[in-house]
Amino acid sequence: MKIHEYQSKELFQKYNIPIPRGKLVFTADEAAAAASDIGAFPVVVKAQIHAGGRGKGGGVKLAGSIDEVKKAASDIIGMTLVTHQTGSEGRTVKKALIEEGLDIKKELYLSIIPDRATAKIIIMASEAGGMDIEEVAEKTPEKLIKTYVDPLMGIQGYHLREIGFGLNLPKEALKPFSGMLKNLYAMFVDYDCSLVEINPLVLLGDGGVAALDAKVNFDDNALYRHKDVVEYRDLDEEDPLEVEASKYNLNYINLDGNVGNMVNGAGLAMATMDIIKQAGAKPANFLDVGGGASADMVENGFRIILSDKNVKGVLINIFGGILRCDILAEGVVQAAKKVGINVPVVVRMEGTNVEEGRRILAESGLDLVTAVNLKDAAEKVAGIVGA
Amino acid sequence: MSIFVNKDTKLVVQGVTGKEGRFHTRQCIEYGTNVVAGVTPGKGGENMDDIPVFNTVKEAVQKAGADCSLIFVPPPFAADAIMEAVDARISLIVAITEGVPVMDMMKVKNYLAGKPVRLIGPNCPGIITPGECKIGIMPGVIHKPGGPVGVVSRSGTLTYEVVHQLTLQNIGQTTCIGIGGDPVNGTNFIDCLEAFEKDPDTKGVVMVGEIGGSAEEEASEFIRQNMSKPVVGFIAGLTAPPGRRMGHAGAIVSGSSGTAQGKLAAMNECGVHVCEDLGTLGEFCAKTFNF
């Protein structure tokens, strides 16, 4: 799960990680009031959306007076911000963060992520702050410090020194930096983060450090033990169909093709999308109804697929294991009766109770196209949508 | 022969009285698995069908001789259940549970390091040696006993699809393992490939990967250096958009890493027989293995 910069900074504050003074605003007038509370210029006006690359897209502006703050805020709030992470349609900005300008001596990069291969927590740091970390890793890998921490042992003094000295920090900054990093690590672990990134982390004129930006992502599997994080969820940042699907515990991702598909199991769902593409059509979604799906879940899945107006045909691919084919078939029949299916549907079923499932579909009187195997199914649905 | 499990494996099921646990324990027994005990804290002394239920794994080991554990407990308690099994000296742990927090699994994995125990999963369908024993949730009937092919996969139903196609081509399986779709898991591709290479009855391997991480790339390099047996490779997720988690917690393309294209390239480069079309994977295997 992703959250906004201002929310990430709220968490930072809780952990005594220094941040610029600032306030979240929804209008230009609120922005002006926030700036006069700060009482010094320049201030920074920052668009609050989940995607990165806001600066390049015009979503971050410096303002040297109240008038400039008003102007910048009214430009930014309400704008459609397009960045390399939003896609071409962009994201509407609904709020902005007004922050004090700081006396910056140097910009650094700092992040913490879990490493899947070693099961260690990696702290990454670089003197090349403000740059895209993938670019740093590619162009100047020698500048990237990587420190591995055993989660059973936790962060130790030598980890902090390795990074602090590695960054060539001035002497007076070592202590504030180490204190900050220790707190950041604690937050990462306490909150089951999947990413904490500060880019840039800045060294200040007075020898202190501050997180100029803040990006925090969380492990979805651990949200059950972080109710306060769940409160941070911003539905405006998500696809409406995906929000709807999440209410029914359906794993749905909206894509731009025209073949809707419903599959049990994530791997098979991905492979089904791939085979639709290979047959010459384009998948409209990813939908994994899961191993323990009920007839109701299948019905809701169907409704969500069909609310995507681009969908011209649907492929159902079920390999019955835990989810039995007869349950799936009942769900399809139930959905057809309640939702009304207005596009051709190709069904391919195999596995547990497949005979019973096929019988239910055959006796339902529904106009379904049956496929004998996966290849046949993909070709049939591609033929239907005219690929 | 087979790898990791066979007809002598003595199974304890942790979470045996839950809905999933009960259903799949019965399925395992029906397949021929030797289930010797169940564990549900607070239900010690009861029975699930004819199986004695204990409060702790330690009791199941001491009183019923269990050496392998199958875990169905819910995600918040899964790490605890795995570590309990480790401390009770279980030698093979199969964790089916989906949704275990990554932090929990990182701690478990570091805890396991250096101990004489193998963990398969979590978030996996389990392991089956067709005709001998099934320790997991896969439908037994689609498998064909006797080998000569081993199957290893990060997925569940996609594995069933692959196995089903092999069986239709009259290609049997020695052992099929689902290593799970989570970013941090116990057994990896290389562990399985190494075991298949050593198993005299396994003549070839099918490896089913997906987007996210670099396990397939590392496995490909292992194959190039250490495998004499042919390996067929498949990767799911060619059409997956970057930055999105595709159902499995571990299935995500981050920046330029973890892409299906990168994995296919690594496989090709290392001499893996890559099949890009799932629809014809069975035929592809028949042609490639040519037993």
Verbal overview:
The complex is a heterodimer of chains A (387) and B (291). In chain A, 36% of the residues lie in helices and 25% in strands. Chain A has 387 residues and is α+β, with helices and mostly antiparallel strands. Chain A has 3 domains: 1-19 and 103-235, D-amino Acid Aminotransferase, Chain A, domain 1 (2-Layer Sandwich), CATH 3.30.470.20; 21-101, Dna Ligase, domain 1 (2-Layer Sandwich), CATH 3.30.1490.20; 239-385, Rossmann fold (3-Layer(aba) Sandwich). In chain A, strand 7 (104-115) and strand 8 (120-126) form a beta hairpin. The mean pLDDT of chain A is 93. With 291 residues, chain B is of the alpha/beta class. Chain B is built from 9 helices and 14 strands.
Write the layout of secondary structure elements.
The complex is a heterodimer of chains A (387) and B (291).
Chain A: H1 5-14, E1 22-25, H2 28-38, E2 43-47, E3 60-63, H3 66-76, E4 80-81, E5 91-92, E6 96-100, E7 104-115, E8 120-126, H4 133-139, E9 144-149, H5 157-166, H6 171-190, E10 193-204, E11 209-211, E12 215-218, H7 227-230, H8 240-247, E13 251-254, E14 259-263, H9 266-278, E15 285-288, H10 295-306, E16 313-320, H11 325-338, E17 345-351, H12 354-363, E18 368-370, H13 374-384
Parallel strand pairs in A: 14-16, 16-17, 17-18
Antiparallel strand pairs in A: 1-6, 2-3, 2-6, 4-5, 7-8, 7-10, 8-9, 10-11, 10-12, 13-15
Helix pairs in contact in A: 2-3, 5-6, 9-13, 10-11, 11-12
Chain B: E1 10-14, H1 19-31, E2 34-39, E3 47-48, E4 51-54, H2 57-64, E5 68-71, H3 75-87, E6 92-95, H4 102-112, E7 118-120, E8 126-129, E9 133-136, E10 148-153, H5 157-168, E11 172-178, H6 189-198, E12 204-210, H7 215-226, E13 231-236, H8 260-269, E14 273-274, H9 281-289
Parallel strand pairs in B: 1-2, 1-5, 2-4, 5-6, 6-7, 10-11, 10-12, 12-13, 13-14
Antiparallel strand pairs in B: 3-4, 8-9, 8-11
Helix pairs in contact in B: 3-4, 5-9, 6-7, 7-8
